[in-house]
Amino acid sequence: MSASPPVVTFVSRNAGKVPEVRAVLAESGVRVHWRKKEFVEPQADTLEEVVAAKLRSVGGISGYVLVEDSGLFIPSLHGFPGVYSAHFLEVWGFAPMLELLRRRSRTAYFRTVAGLRHGGRQWMFVGEVHGSIARRAVGRGGFGYDPIFVPNGWNRTFAQVPASEKDAISHRARAVRKVGVFLARRRA
Ligand code: ITT
Fold first, then answer.
1. Given 3.40.50.700, 3.40.50.300, 3.40.50.2000, 3.90.950.10, which CATH number is that of 7-187?
2. Which atom of ligand 1 is found nearest the CA of 170?
3. 82-90 long-range contacts, Cβ below 8 Å, gap at least 24?
4. How far is ligand 1, taken at its centre, from the CA of residue 2, in Å?
5. Would you please indicate which residues are annotated as catalytic (active-site) residues?
6. pTM here?
7. What does the pLDDT look like over 56-108, one tens digit per residue?
8. Tens digit of pLDDT for each residue in 31-62?
9. Spans of all domains in the chain
10. Ligand 1 atom closest to Cα of 54?
């Protein structure tokens, strides 16, 4: 049995991810220390490859280290923006996507791959939430694509609900919740 891991260092440049990761890991009694870092992301086809590169670059940090990579995937746009989600939003905003989807299926999903590292060992955990792209951006909560993503069974975007409602079902929460369960089992 391994020693108790009460703290995980979460490495990311994205302040919006931090309260979500914190709230979800708190469910398993795990505390989160945020280390702000800008990753040099590789040109990669999958979130898993990006996470593997992120995990390599945090090798010098002791204890449990968590990274994650997320993307919005739209099947009618052949999975775009996917691994390019951050770049696309920074450069173009929502407008071209909303325009492209005027005559295409609005079905979409968010996917997160969370990577956990401890010494020389590492693990990956995946979470997804499926839904559709709204006709226009609505709501002020969350970050990134939250104002245009409506989960299946909802009539509101992620940006229109309290954080706890997003954290109940989101891609990130689903992946990170698996991390919490994994860490709790290792402590048991
Ligand atoms: P890292 O330092 O953790 O890499 P990042 O902002 O570059 O932070 P990602 O590459 O994982 O993060 O995320 C890609 C983009 O996808 C991100 O910048 C957001 O625009 C969007 N995104 C990710 N998770 C989201 C969420 O829960 N809600 C809305 N948009 C999200």
1. 3.90.950.10
2. 27
3. 83/44, 83/45, 83/46, 83/47, 83/50, 85/144, 85/145, 86/144, 89/144, 89/145
4. 32
5. 69
6. 0.95
7. 999 999 999 999 999 999 999 999 999 999 999 999 999 999 999 999 999 99
8. 999 999 999 877 899 999 999 999 999 999 99
9. 7-187
10. 4
